[in-house]
Amino acid sequence: MKQTPLKTCPLPDPSRRRFIQGLAAGGVLMGLSPWIKPSWAAQAAATHTGAAPVLSGTEFDLTIAETAVNFTGNPRMATTINGSIPAPVLRWREGDTVTIRVTNRMNVPTSIHWHGIILPYQMDGVPGVSFNGIAPGETFTYRFKVQQAGTYWYHSHTGFQEQTGMYGAIIIEPRGGANIRADRDYVVQLSDWTDEDPMKVFARLKKQGDYYNFNEPTAADFFRDVSVMGLGAALSKRRMWNEMRMSPTDLADISGYTYTYLMNGSTPAGNWTGLFKPGERVRLRFISSGTQSFFDVRIPGLKMTVVHVDGQDVEPVTVDEFRCGPGETYDVLVEPRDEAYTLFAQSMDRTGYARGSLAVREGLSAPVPELDKPEWLTMADMMGSMGGMAAMDHGTSNTMTGMEGMAGMEGMDHSGHSMAGMAMDSGAAVHARHAKTEYGPSVDMRVDMPRTNLDDPGIGLRNNGRRVLTYADLHTPGGSMDSRGPEREIELHLTGNMERYTWSLDGLEFGKSTPIHFRHNQRLRVILHNDTMMTHPMHLHGMWSELQNPDGSFLARRHTISVQPAQRVSFLVTADALGQWAWHCHLLYHMDAGMFRKVVVA
Ligand SMILES: [Cu+2]
């Protein structure tokens, strides 16, 4: 969706790249640079980072404040809950009623949203939708009955506070005692930190959507293509991307150029460590709290058995790797036997990683793998099933270097820089309808023949020699909560314009949209159709999203569903939660740019 000029690539300075792996002792205020005034430093309490404190019971007091933090050598102000990053782990018990008093000690409003928790809408914590937010100096009391068990998390739903540190884990014990047996149990919360002011990051993206993309095709890539495929094919490949005003490297808006990726609030150099004794069974609760980052997680030398996703048990499936998008949670069981293992979570665009260790004692670590090479998006990623036909011609190939055959694409109609001209009869089952509102300046691409392949692990994870989890692998035991078929179908398109950095649903940013109405207790089939080149983790508040196979059979109960480029997924919702709810992309900058809707259940 971006211009792909032949540019010499200003790769980040390697010394800087190493530097942003962070300080070993990130978090505490140290190494003050001269421009930080001592008085400022004196009054700012330092943020505690790394393993978060654990709070349990039914009464909680949380204080939101600005405290100082230092992940990279540059002291910065963070937005924290009880002075720590991550925020305290809250341990609840299914069936209890919890009371949480949240006090705002800042001079701007704040909020806390309980992600994935089923509760009355007034307690959901989304300013402007469920309540007014928490004003400076005010204490807001959340009180609700805990009706579920499992791994969840909480975060600010105000401004960019989530980016600057406001996120923590929630662990809810099942009423009947633990049903997954483990000798050790660790939260592994992944996140992304920037020293820049997030408002400035957003402003930069608004001006230039690919500001943080340093993987764009370079002159060197072009000459490599020439030597592999010949001048003609290399030129037409380049021309194809340019004419579509897209970049095949459009994998993440914000990269390791500015991000330091954190594991439990520790930088890669800080190496968060979970201890174990050989032979023990360890449960790792991965929580994807990055504001704008998908993480690909693996533990070299260990198989991971995925047992619990988005707070729900799933039939165990053993894998080498899984992708977790912002908002999603994945619990895995591992049985480590060696002395040390690396928990490796590389960003989807391969510009950095979060890292920690499982070890038999503090201070041990295992080798850290190299980042995988970034893969370019394929035609299938952009055009769905039609692009898939092209991909079929090339067998397992999924990089542009294998797409010489695409030279034939020159004849296609790029009118309006959209995919609208791409419609052709391929016998695909689904032929998209686009709303009138999709034909406007907010939309630079439309997919007419989407793909529905939930067994695709996504760009960068295909055919990498590892067994990678896919959505098709997920099965919630016991099936759907509601045996009724859908009474109504709602189709929403995930849309955007990368040049303008606008993100929307059906071509309408939140400010131009009207609420979506669900009739109380109605059973709905929701279809999300991705008309963009990016993966969007879509989070519906207040109600479960029951993911379906393309054939309509039940797969898994989720609170967040990532929709890949040019993909179409469907899920069932029982609208049993009266009130007003948020529904949005969990990429924070996409949400702020307009990929957000209000849902009214009445
Ligand atoms: Cu998005």
Describe this entry's structure for a reader.
The relative contact order is 0.12. The protein is globular, with a radius of gyration of 23 Å. It is built from eight helices and 33 strands. The longest helix is centred in the middle third of the chain and has 13 residues, at 231-243. Mean pLDDT is 85; it is low at 1-19, 29-42 and 387-428. The strands form seven sheets. A six-stranded mixed β-sheet has the order 13-12-15-20-17-18, with no helix packed on it. A six-stranded mixed β-sheet has the order 24-23-26-31-28-29. The chain has a five-stranded mixed β-sheet with strand order 2-6-11-10-8, with no helix packed on it.
Brief sketch in words of this structure:
With 602 residues, the protein is mainly β. Helices cover 11% and strands 32% of the residues. It is built from 8 helices and 33 strands.
Keywords:
single chain; 602 residues; mainly beta; six-stranded mixed beta sheet; 8 helices; 32% strand; globular; disordered N terminus; binds copper (II) ion
